Predict the structure of Non-heme iron oxygenase ferredoxin subunit.
Amino acid sequence: MTWIKVANVSDLEVGDMMQVPLDEEDLALYHLEDGFYATSDVCTHAAQSLSNGTLDGHIVACPRHGGKFDVKTGQATSFPCVIPIATYEVEVRGDEVWVDYD
């Protein structure tokens, strides 16, 4: 396990998302009603940044073709997306948000 601090809790309101640039790839961080979630920030269909799309509940829509993913599971939920996105474990430690990025 490699835990990385990616944000402070106060950086994201509930219902918001943001891109987290890392050396190897960008992650998307989401603040939902029940906590924080992290996924790959790249749509598996169109290689677009999901954090530039829209978030409705726990479903993120790609800004290019509107394909959708469940940010809790990574599963594709709407065509043209069929390949899931990677998800990462998230912990809140005090006011800090950490992601297990292996």
About this structure: The mean pLDDT is 95. The chain has one domain: 14-92.
